[in-house]
Amino acid sequence: MIRRIGEDRFVEDLEAHETRMSAPVAADFEPSLYAENVYREDRVEPAPPR
Predict the structure, then answer these.
(1) Rounded-to-integer distance, Cα 20 and Cα 10, Å
(2) Residue 5: phi, psi to the nearest 5?
(3) Do 41 and 34 meet the contact criterion of CB atoms below 8 Å apart?
(4) Per-residue pLDDT tens digits for 4-20
(5) What are the backbone angles phi and psi of residue 46, rounded to the nearest 5°?
(6) Is there a contact between 10 and 17 (Cβ–Cβ < 8 Å)?
C-alpha cells in the first residue's frame, strides 16, 4: 500500500519531476580546480614493462 501511494504521488507530479530532472545544473567548482585531473587520452603514458 505504501509503495502504491508513493508511485501514485510520483506519477501525479511527473511533469514537475521531469522539469526538475532536465533543468540545467550549475557547476559546483570552476574548471580550473579540476581540469588537469580529468582523463584525456592524449596525456596517457604507457605503463612500464614488467
Answers:
(1) 13
(2) -60, -45
(3) no
(4) 778 888 888 888 889 98
(5) -65, 150
(6) yes
CA 10 to chain centre: 21
pTM of the model: 0.40
Residues written for the chain:
50
Q: Which residue is listed with cell 532536465? A: 22
In the three-class reduction of DSSP (H, G, I as helix; E, B as strand; rest coil), residue 44 is classed as coil
pLDDT digits (tens, 9 = 90+) for 22-47: 999 998 889 889 888 887 888 788 88
Q: How far apart are CA 33 and CA 29, in angstroms?
A: 7
SS3 at position 34: coil
Determine phi and psi for 20, rounding to 5 degrees: -65, -40
